[in-house]
Specification:
Collagenase (Catalytic Domain); Immunoglobulin-like; Jelly Rolls; 34% strand; five-stranded mixed sheet; alpha+beta; globular
């Protein structure tokens, strides 16, 4: 059955076909008149690129099928957003006078086989095209498509995503989602999944209560491709991120997308297991200089080998924060049933979990003001007591007069980020850093005034759990020349190394502080180090 749809804003869509017999006549027309802010001048639009290596060339009929796929995905995202309460809000597309999606065709400089050996070359050529043709770029988001075998990866990198198909031929499935006719084509599940990454979506898994529906941003790409189109969906947390994605919004709403860092910080919180409710309950308050739209909490399991994973199994719970009476302060409460965390996917690997609190702000940024590990009883599918955590939020001193240096840095992750009061920024050492050849990590702070110091506070909260200190020596000095060792400690685990308070056991009069790290927690041979905040206790 074919569903007829119409576009009422300035454009009338011509008929287009997904059948094998006809390419420009026997077509499924996609109705977009009910979709919010689609194809209007005022909406940010997705830059859709079709990339051709030197040995690949496709005809207009092929490109028309690519257009049909993009229009279908646009409507699919709209229907999913509508199901989560946002109305039919979706990403913008530029449509030409023939009712087709504007495809920016870029001819590569190399062959398909050459790109397949180093696929980042395609990213470089696409970025170079937009540098040379800035007027062609309508938003920060780029989706690069190509014919299968062209050397394109299936991946999302930052705000750019890549995918391919052998033919981009849409076919009906005979299935519907909320009245929307679902289609299939070669690699369509993967195309929609990678586009999600390009629109700011990380991997996120469904809850047990969502089954048999599977999150697109978990393994929903494969689920969709295997004929389960009507059981593939977008999570509330995914839709919360899309709601503030640049391409889902208008140009004239006064928001600088991905601009100002909201500086999200926890004020108070309590996360505890409630066995009488068979749930983890999280509540608290946080501050943000940019209005938050949603907060969600993720529970991410570790694989058996103990290394981090790409969060295919991170089960999320989402809510809308409320404003308190204090300026820029917001509150939240979430109830997270034990049973939902154990959703049947990699449950045996969930003996160790990472709990992360994410705050989504209206300018499209996502902050992680709190993250810690806990363990579970897999046999009972319940969390252990170490999931309980209440606020012990460190109150920072006034460090406005401080100057701070480090003996290395990586890019813009400079030393001053350790004293900016923003837990979402961090200093990072040079990459790669090998202590045996480059020496210990050394961080030196000058208070520019005399102070009584009782100890120090260290926060190493870069995303992930690596590059945290394992051995720390703390020294103080009157004038910055002669140094006195106050403490030399070893941290027992990478989890404990996230937040460290070192008490000197006495009050020291000093103006200079030096922190020496001679051993770190790392998943690689590199011995890099990162700190989000450094402070003193008085």
């Amino acid at each position: 059955m074919k569903t007829k749809l119409y576009l009422s804003i300035f454009l009338i869509f011509g008929l287009f076909s997904c059948s094998k017999e006809k390419i420009t006549e026997d077509l499924s027309v996609i109705k977009l008149n009910s979709v919010k802010n689609i194809n209007t001048q005022n909406q940010h639009t997705l830059n859709v690129v079709f990339f051709e290596p030197t040995d690949v060339s496709v005809n207009q009929a092929f490109l028309d099928r690519v257009s049909n796929v993009m229009l279908y995905i646009q409507e699919w995202y709209a229907v999913q957003m509508d199901a989560q309460g946002y109305g039919k809000k979706t990403f913008g597309l530029n449509i030409n006078s023939n009712g087709k999606v504007k495809l920016i065709k870029i001819k590569g400089k190399k062959t398909s086989s050459e790109y397949s050996k180093n696929r980042l070359q395609i990213k470089g050529e696409v970025n170079n095209y937009f540098r040379q043709n800035p007027s062609e770029k309508d938003s920060q988001h780029i989706f690069v498509l190509g014919k299968e075998g062209s050397g394109l990866p299936f991946v999302g990198v930052g705000k750019m995503a890549f995918a391919s198909s052998k033919n981009f031929k849409l076919e009906p499935t005979g299935k519907y989602f909320n009245g929307f006719e679902l289609k299939k084509c070669d690699k369509l599940g993967g195309i929609m999944h990678e586009l999600g990454h390009g629109l700011n979506l990380p991997h996120m898994a469904h809850r047990k209560s969502d089954l048999p529906n599977i999150s697109l941003m978990s393994f929903g790409n494969r689920h969709y491709q295997r004929g389960n189109e009507d059981e593939t969906f977008l999570l509330p947390s995914s839709c919360a991120l899309l709601n503030v994605s640049q391409t889902f919004n208008s140009r004239n709403n006064g928001i600088n997308y991905y601009g100002n860092n909201p500086g999200v910080n926890m004020v108070t919180y309590e996360i505890k297991k409630e066995n009488n409710q068979n749930a983890i309950i999280a509540e608290g308050k946080f501050t943000s200089s940019v209005r938050p739209t949603h907060i969600y909490i993720g529970h991410n399991g570790y694989p058996k080998n103990g290394n981090g994973n790409p969060r295919y199994d991170e089960v999320t719970f989402t809510t809308t924060p409320g404003a308190t009476r204090n300026v820029n302060e917001y509150s939240f409460r979430l109830v997270m049933p034990y049973s939902d965390i154990f959703n049947g996917y990699q449950d045996n690997n969930k003996n160790k979990m990472a709990l992360s609190v994410y705050v989504v702000t209206e300018n499209g940024r996502k902050s992680t003001p709190l993250q810690y590990d806990y363990t579970t009883d897999v046999s009972k599918q319940t969390p252990n007591d170490d999931v309980n955590k209440s606020d012990n939020v460190f109150s920072h001193t006034n460090r406005s007069a401080w100057t701070i240096t480090a003996n290395s840095k990586s890019g813009n992750n400079i030393a001053s980020r350790m004293i900016d009061g923003d837990k979402t920024t961090f200093w990072h050492s040079m990459w790669p850093y090998i202590i045996s050849s480059k020496g210990n990590h050394v961080i030196t702070a000058n208070f520019n005034e005399w102070k009584y110091i009782n100890g120090i506070y260290l926060l190493s909260d870069k995303k992930g759990r690596y590059f945290r200190p394992k051995s720390v020596k703390v020294e103080t000095s009157y004038y910055g020349d002669n140094w006195t060792v106050m403490k030399h400690i070893h941290i027992a685990s990478e989890n404990e190394a996230r937040e460290i308070k070192i008490n000197f056991g006495q009050s020291i009069w000093a103006q200079h502080l030096r922190i020496i790290v001679d051993e770190v927690y790392s998943s690689t041979s590199a011995e890099n180090l990162s700190f989000s905040e450094i402070d003193i206790t008085e």
